[in-house]
Amino acid sequence: MSSTAETAAAGVPATSATTGDVPAFGWSAYAERVNGRFAMVGFAAVLVIEALSGETFLRWAGLVP
Fold first, then answer.
1. Rounded CA gap, 65 and 33, in Å?
2. Which of the ends of the chain has fewer CB neighbours closer than 10 A, N or C?
3. Residue 23: exposure state from Cβ atoms within 10 A (0-12, 13-18, ≥19)
4. How many CA atoms lie within 13 A of 27 on its CB side?
5. pLDDT tens across 33-62, in order?
6. Considering the chain, what percentage of its residues have pLDDT values greater than 70?
7. d(Cα 14, Cα 4) in Å, to the nearest integer?
8. Residue 32 has pLDDT above 80, yes or no
9. C-alpha to C-alpha distance for 60 and 58, rounded to whole angstroms
10. What is 27-57 written as a DSSP string?
């Protein structure tokens, strides 16, 4: 059996839905792309919190008195 047939039989997708990359753990291009997307969402959330609260994020979170 080939490796793609084995992964398909195991229920693991051969590639990602949006790219040709195979989802994998560790330092792969797929993992870095997902990490970058989560970082962008987090940064946007910080901007929204600052805009709505009128305070800096650090003060809002209680990290700066």
1. 36
2. C
3. middle
4. 0
5. 889 999 999 999 999 999 999 999 999 889
6. 68
7. 6
8. yes
9. 5
10. S-HHHHHHHHHHHHHHHHHHHHHHHHHSS-H
